């Protein structure tokens, strides 16, 4: 089934004359997950997003699917258990997207570190049990100082005690969103990007009955009628709730900004994802991650009060991250001029959840005395001096300190909330990418309950833990083998091995649909054959409406292929202009939009490289 601009036009016309069961506002990962579950369960579903799908927040993460190892510092066992189990579910329903990529965590002899070598090993062993990888090739292990430096020779040796290695997953956040969106569309949902909500509508009894929206491509205003309305707009959650004039709401969001910077692998070479304390004793940790032929690092975590639509990388963000990375890798001497790309994103944190983890459990700081007692007891247990029940008793009686004030954005919860206002507007907010399916599940359960209670409509919710996203119809235990088979199909059709492998990893079991375009799409002058068919697939099957959509969110050209980005700008714009029949004015508009996005990613203003 096509998912294109033509699909969009037909959906808009249909929506003017029908009432949907659920209108979802917000096309990030939570909205996308909710749309998939609702559509697959038979609900008449519509999703509207004022930008491109995932453009606001969900394409601007650290691009990992975390297991939450750091929570074990405070022995939040339930949190980690929930997180690693849900991570496994996401990997099962989207096996072509999250990929296992073991993380190395160096330990330094510094004050106020998150872990010592001993506490890290205890945490990793527990983590492996919770993730059910004990005894597998992904089981954790420790490295001596010498082994760490052999693996990462650029890493700072002074004070280095060793490291732990444990399982984590890399992620393509924007691809995870679009694959959920595509599956929702295939199951009958009407998925509209560039459609902005400008007002919440109500019935005669004052209950939410839909929304007035504007098609940002044409300027047309129309009303979408809905039995239920679900707000999944992340940092914009308060904005949508305050748009609802039938109810009074108290703002609950406290967005924080996270920044990531990209350099060439030749400037900073790491063998595998690396995670360490900042060395500033500020309670934060930083990632340094290899991706393609690049290395990116982040993140910052600072309160944000600016334009929600366009958070920017600022000088202080760059200074902070460069200071940390140059300290941990003292020989690299990275400067702002080495930065090839960057991104800034917002975390939709819930202010009132400070001191709680993402699902409401306690996350207060554990007292030093309790930590010492736990570690001592665990050590005695490993030596056979105490029984297991004694360890359990110690864990049950951990004392929490009340020193957390909630003023530090790094201490804020990534917790989620699900609320319904007096007039029926449902809002799900907060959370992390790893939790998206569960957040969506809770929201759609509430929607179905309301439909049954108020509209006498009965629906059976699908088992979203086993329902694959688009492109994910493969055995999650045989991803490498199946991806290799898909790549070989491309080679047999005339693609180079590298091109075919690239496409197979990007599209999963949708790759044959991409290959099918080889029969009707000629190689575009200035693009590779792989990029030629990828661009056409993006326009025909992935609602790619602008060059930025393609280069930033359907592929990673802007972030991790900066070397070849400039040379493909003209071919991509020209081909899209021909396909969409853009006027010269349209063409110039999209060119400026792309150039502005590239300049922002390149940090041209901060570098003083401005025309």
TrEMBL record:
Domain of life of the native organism: Bacteria
GO molecular function: glycerol-3-phosphate dehydrogenase (quinone) activity; glycerol-3-phosphate oxidase activity
Residue intervals of the FAD dependent oxidoreductase domain: 21-351
PROSITE patterns according to UniProt: FAD_G3PDH_1 (PS00977)
Keywords: FAD, Flavoprotein, Glycerol metabolism, Oxidoreductase
Family (UniProt): Belongs to the FAD-dependent glycerol-3-phosphate dehydrogenase family.
Cofactor(s) this protein cannot do without: FAD
Organism of origin: Alkalibacterium gilvum
Reactions performed catalytically: sn-glycerol 3-phosphate + O2 = dihydroxyacetone phosphate + H2O2
EC number: 1.1.3.21
Gene Ontology BP terms: glycerol metabolic process; glycerol-3-phosphate catabolic process
Protein known as: Alpha-glycerophosphate oxidase
InterPro entries: DAO_C, DAO_C_sf, FAD-dep_OxRdtase, FAD/NAD-bd_sf, G3P_DH_FAD-dep
Record Pfam families: DAO, DAO_C
Group of enzyme by EC: oxidoreductase
Domain Alpha-glycerophosphate oxidase C-terminal: 469-586
């Amino acid at each position: 089934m096509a998912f294109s601009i033509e699909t969009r036009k037909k959906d808009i016309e249909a929506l003017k004359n029908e009432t949907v069961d659920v209108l979802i506002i917000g096309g990030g990962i939570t909205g996308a997950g909710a749309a998939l579950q609702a559509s697959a369960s038979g609900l008449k579903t519509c999703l509207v997003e004022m930008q491109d799908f995932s453009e606001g927040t969900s394409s601007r993460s650290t691009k990992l699917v975390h297991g939450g190892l750091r929570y074990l510092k405070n022995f939040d066992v339930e949190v980690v258990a929930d997180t690693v189990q849900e991570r496994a579910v996401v990997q099962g329903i989207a096996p072509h997207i999250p990929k296992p990529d073991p993380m190395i965590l160096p330990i330094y002899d510094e004050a106020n570190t998150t872990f010592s070598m001993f506490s890290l090993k205890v945490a990793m062993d527990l983590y492996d049990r919770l993730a059910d990888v004990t005894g597998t090739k992904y089981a954790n292990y420790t490295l001596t100082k010498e082994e760490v430096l052999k693996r990462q020779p650029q890493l700072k040796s002074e004070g280095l005690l060793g490291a732990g290695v444990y399982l984590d997953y890399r992620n393509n956040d924007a691809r995870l969103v679009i694959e959920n969106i595509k599956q929702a569309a295939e199951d009958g949902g009407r998925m509209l990007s560039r459609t902005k909500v400008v007002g919440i509508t109500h019935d005669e009894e004052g209950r939410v009955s839909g929304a007035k929206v504007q098609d940002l491509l044409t300027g047309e205003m129309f009303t979408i009628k809905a039995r239920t309305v679900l707000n999944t707009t992340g940092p914009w959650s308060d904005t949508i709730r305050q748009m609802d004039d039938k109810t009074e709401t108290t703002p609950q969001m406290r967005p924080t900004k996270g920044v990531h910077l990209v350099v060439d692998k030749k400037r900073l070479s790491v063998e595998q994802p690396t995670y360490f304390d900042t060395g500033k004793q500020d309670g934060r940790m930083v990632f340094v991650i290899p991706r393609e032929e690049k290395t990116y690092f982040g993140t910052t975590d600072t309160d944000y009060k600016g334009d929600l639509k366009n958070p920017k990388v600022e000088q202080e963000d760059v200074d902070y991250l460069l200071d940390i990375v140059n300290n941990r890798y003292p020989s690299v001497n990275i400067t702002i001029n080495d930065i090839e790309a960057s991104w800034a994103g917002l975390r939709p944190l819930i202010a009132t959840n400070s001191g709680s983890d993402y699902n409401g459990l306690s996350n207060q700081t554990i007292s030093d005395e309790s930590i010492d007692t736990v570690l001592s007891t665990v050590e005695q247990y490993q030596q056979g001096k105490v029984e297991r029940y004694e360890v359990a008793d110690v864990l049950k009686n951990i004392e929490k300190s009340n020193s957390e004030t909630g003023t530090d954005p790094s201490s804020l919860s990534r917790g989620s909330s699900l609320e319904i206002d007096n007039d029926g507007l449902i809002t799900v907010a907060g959370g992390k990418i790893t939790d998206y399916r569960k957040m969506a599940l809770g929201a759609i359960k509430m929607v179905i309950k309301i439909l049954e209670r108020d509209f006498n409509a009965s629906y059976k919710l699908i088992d979203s833990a086993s329902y694959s996203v688009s492109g994910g119809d493969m055995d999650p235990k045989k991803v490498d083998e199946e991806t290799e088979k898909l790549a070989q199909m491309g080679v047999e059709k005339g693609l180079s091995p590298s091109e075919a492998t690239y496409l197979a990893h990007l599209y999963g079991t949708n790759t044959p649909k991409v290959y099918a375009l080889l029969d009707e799409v000629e190689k575009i002058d200035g693009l590779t054959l792989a990029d030629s068919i990828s661009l056409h697939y993006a326009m025909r099957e992935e609602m790619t409406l602008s060059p930025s959509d393609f280069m930033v969110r359907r592929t990673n050209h802007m972030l991790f292929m900066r070397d070849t980005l400039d040379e493909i700008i003209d071919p991509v714009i020209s081909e899209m202009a021909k396909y969409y029949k853009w006027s010269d004015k349209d063409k110039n508009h999209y060119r400026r939009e792309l150039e502005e996005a590239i300049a922002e990613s390149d940090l041209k203003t901060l570098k003083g490289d401005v025309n």
